[in-house]
Amino acid sequence: MISALLLALAMQAQDTTRLTLQHVVERALTTHPAVASARAVVDRSAADLSDARSRRLPGLTLDAALNRFEKPMIVSPLHGLDLRNPPLFDRTPYQAGLSLNWTVFDFGRRSAQIRAQSALREAADDALTSTEQQLTAATVHAYLAVLDARQTLAARDRLVAALQAAGDRTRQLEAQGKAAHVDVLRMNAEVARAQADRITIVSQLDVAEHALAQFADIPFENVHGATLAPLALADTSAVADAGLVPRALRTSSELRELEQQSQAARAGVSAARATRLPTVQMQGAYIDRGRWAGNYAAEWQVGLAMSYPVFTGGSRASAVQRASANERLAAERVRAARLDVTQQIDQNLATLREAHARVAALESAVAQSQEVERIEKLALDVGTVVQTDYLDAEAKLYSAQASLIQARHAEIAARVDLAGTLGDLSRDWLARNVESLP
Predict the structure, then answer these.
(1) 67 near 49, Cβ under 8 Å?
(2) What is the pLDDT confidence band of residue 3, given thresholds at 50, 70 and 90?
(3) Which residues contact 11 (CB under 8 A, 6 or more apart)?
(4) What is the 3-state secondary structure (H, E, C) of 19-38?
(5) CB-side neighbour CA atoms (13 Å) of 181
(6) pLDDT one-digit tens code per residue, 200-235
């Protein structure tokens, strides 16, 4: 048992041309610029929140100045006039000081700004989650598109090979006088049509492989030459739709992002209204003055200051009006998003039910097509049917098999889209629900 496990691990380590869905999604989430941009927004919003919180603390500033005047300047300010001790004058006075400035009261303006930045910070996190989910879903769709195109191409190649073999047999029968030349022409036309269809499928496969390579930041040659692991759902039972809409309204990352933006807009209205009220600040300083020759004298000062713009030409009213409009806009976006989530759940469920039903129907169709193809083959061998009947049965079998795989892939895609709408889609969700087959 241990030796067999080690052998399997060694073979897996040597297989560098096989891609799995988990590897491709991991690459996409690590390298795609959309995720990198969303992470940068998260970092920026965190910095904005720290900046907003810092405004609650006092500011401490160290200043120093050394000036050269054309004519002597008073070294220290006059706090009184004593004719027996005249003030000092010098052409190069010096001054250094430590000043403190603290906004004591601003009628909640800073608190509102902090609430707004906190909501925007949460919105950035939700936007990152939403971006990762959208990229994951797009990568899964691209992966499935490559699998579909390759399966369709394989089915077409089998059909072309069968038609060419049938054409060879027809030409042999013509040489023996057992078939008409028109039968040969008919087979040649069938082969030409099948080859023309193959060209279209090859083009579709090329587009799908390029898309997957771009999502995962993998060279196209590596994707084109790699074997993609087939996929299957871990649980193919029908999804219960009860309670999915209320759940999605609670957990959708896109909706949460817009709700946080709405909270930030409401806080912005409070911050804008606070500008109509005065601001009270405490100011203090410790200042040392002197000149090159010495005569240093230090003193402290402290005070309260109130600032209230009496007239701003309508600037404050415009700021409040703009903030109120932003609040209404954000609220309406939340309402629209709730409608979109409800519609997406309905659409996801309808698509999932359709794909699930198609899988069941096509499984039966494949089984019946296999039986028809077997019977037609036996009949052809004993000469009771013509060759075109068998080829038609074989073509229908290949088509049904390809359609079945595509239907299974469509069911996987529908489950992925539903998980994205519910806010559940992640690498862990994929690992639990979508299996990579050997």
Answers:
(1) no
(2) very low
(3) none
(4) ECHHHHHHHHHHHCHHHHHH
(5) 0
(6) 999 999 999 999 999 999 999 999 989 999 999 998
| Cα separation, 230 vs 151, whole angstroms | 10
Q: Measured between alpha carbons, how far is 361 from 353 in angstroms, rounded to an integer?
A: 12
Domain 34-275+283-436 listed as CATH 1.20.1600.10: yes
Residue owning tokens 């299974």: 408
Compute the C-alpha angle 87/92/98, nearest 5°: 85
pLDDT tens for each residue of 335-364: 999 999 999 999 999 999 999 999 999 989
Who's near 126: CB < 8 A, 6+ residues apart? 253, 254, 256, 257, 260
- Please report, for the chain, the start and end positions of each structural domain, with discontinuous segments joined by +: 34-275+283-436
**Contacts (Cβ under 8 Å, ≥6 apart) of 197:** 156
- As a whole number of angstroms, the distance between CA 353 and CA 414 comes to 9
The verdict on pTM exceeding 0.90 is: no
Residue 129 Rama label (left phi>0; alpha psi -120 to 50; beta)? alpha
* Closest to 316 (Cα-Cα) out of 127, 129, 100, 107: 107
CA diameter of the chain? 143
